[in-house]
Design a protein that fits this description.
Largest sheet of chain B: 14 strands, mixed
Order of helices and strands of chain A: HHHHHHHHHH
Distance between the termini of chain B: 82 Å
Shape of chain B: elongated
Structural class of chain B: alpha+beta
Number of domains of chain A: 2
Structural class of chain A: mainly alpha
Strand content of chain B: 25-35%
Helix content of chain A: over 70%
Oligomer: heterodimer
Order of helices and strands of chain B: HHHHEHEEEEEEEEEEEEEHEHEHEHEE
Shape of chain A: elongated
Radius of gyration of chain A: 20 Å
Number of domains of chain B: 3
Radius of gyration of chain B: 38 Å
Number of strands of chain A: 0
CATH class of the largest domain in chain B: Mainly Beta
Number of helices of chain A: 10
Amino acid sequence: MVHEYEEQLFSKIKEGDEDAFNKAFDLYYPRLCFFADNIIHDFDLSRSVVQQVFVDLWIRRTNLDILFSLKSYLFQAVKNEALDILKHRKVETKYLQSFREKDEQGWFHDQIEEAELNDRINIAIQELPPRCRDIFMLCRFEELKYSEIAERLNISVKTVEMQISIALKKIRTKLSPYQSVSLLSFLFSKKM
Amino acid sequence: MESENNHFEILIGKKLSNEITENELTELGDWINLDRKNQKLFEESNQFWQSSRKLFSSEEILKDKTKVNDQIKIQLRHKQKKIQLLLFYRIAAVIAIPVFLAAGWYAGTRYAGSSKDLLCEVSAPKGQIAECVLADGTRVWLNTGSTIQYNPTLWGKNRVIKLTGEAYFKVTENQHKPFIVETSDVQVKVLGTSFNVKAYPDEKNTETTLEEGRIQLLINDFPEQAPIELNPGDHAIYQTDNKKLNIEKTDTYLLTAWRDGKYIFKDADLKTIVQQLEKLYDVHIYLKNKQMGQLRFRGMFEYNKNILDALETIERSTSLKYRMNGREIWIGNE
């Protein structure tokens, strides 16, 4: 189902359908940014790399022959750019070499999964109730201590504790449809 | 049960955010080991905690989307320009005409009359440029289909040259013997200078472009009128049909580069280019409609090779098609 939709997206893009292009952007842009960031560890640079890949996609759309899917084309294109950036950072050649030696297909696959998880988490965080989200962000992204958060927001440490636990629960619930097969089988075995 | 779960949820949160105490950690560890379900709960929380490094807000994403769409517009515009330029460089490469160097001078020189009355004639055939050096050292470049005639035995007072078509002169300075270029409509009198005169019989205008030095322009329709002085960079256009003279400043290279085998078009329309091609290759080109002639190009081109390449290049860069039958060419939409 998803695959069919994707195929349609790409053929529509080839025909010059701007809506389809914008849909593809909404669908893949954030996770591609996370994917690039997981490799080059520079989120702003990742954003511009992915933006360029989308610009190229539209400009060269009639010349593109996508063998697999739009998704794999996009991830492949971003991967190439990201590895190129690494290559130009002499300091990281060692890192580059180390994953050259790794199973590259497997690595690529894992990276895509990780990026998709990042994307889902990102959506889940944004869907938290505003106050809960603010507290979670201060804690996770700004790495403030509970006491610092409490002071900044003029609330009690207990409230911070509670809100963090709510955030954890809500995010986990949002992610649960994507839970790994192993977890599913675990639950089934438990029920039986 | 609910509150107990909340309690451990809080402990998980504390563990992940490094707020947990020794005692709480032991308590959490025991709880995790108690049940695989608890373990799963902790692992899931831990996994997404580690996987969330930053928030990528939908506002930022939207901003990036706008950026991408803007960038596409810019690049497409840029690409179009590049195609136009490329087109012109291509034409440049394909329509350059072979340049006759000094050979043109010998090949085209004919002697007429007696040896005393020595009339020299140099022409550049259609599709070729000729360059020659006159007896006084003056260098002349003749554009395609142009002819100069002169009689050096009569050069006592003035160095007189008759021009049909277009030529560029680099006149050897001689204060005592002015150099005069005569065309059917104007006369150009010089002492020593570089200039271009374009006086094709089939064109309405006679154009004089001064690159260096000073020249005087005499219009044959107004023999009483004092000669008009031109300064470097002046481009004088005499309209023979309504007898009007216009002088404007110009980038002279645009008008004189033909002698280097380059035709430089600045904002030229298809009509102008077609006229040039007709002149160069001695062909007739018909445009299907007048608007087509207004199609504008930018850039510069030098020409080379043959007209077919030129036409094909026009085809490639526009949606136009050509049809050729002998020396007649039609350019249309299909």
